[in-house]
Please model this.
Amino acid sequence: MMEPVMEPLKYTDAALREILSNIRTMAMVGASGDWKRPSSFAMKYLQRRGYRVIPVNPGRAGTEILGEMVYASLADIPVDIDMVDVFRSSEAALGVAEETAGLAKDKNIKVLWMQLGIRNDAAAEIAEAAGLEVIMDRCPKIEYARL
Model:
């Protein structure tokens, strides 16, 4: 059986620019304390551009990554979050989308962003049904630099 062919994702520069201009605080699900990991590069870059990046990693909860306390889940973060950045597999993105959708109103979450290579249409549908804007298969660090 063949895999269904997915339409390529198209986001306008204006839409991406608007998101990156209007968010200040993001939760990075799957953040790593290992400086060689892409999530570490992205987190450091975004922090230097004025964003607060709150790491979510159950294995590192209670420690710090790049000066920010690490939380086990989005629900544990004690402040509002503008965006959830998913640095996990496409399969894991579904659970992150469900958690994000459930917390969207309480935490004022506006955007679910899935990293480069991450695409989960079911996760996107759940997030969009909760009123969130969804970006898939893009890196906010790369888009910020490009725009």
Remarks:
- The longest strand covers residues 25-29.
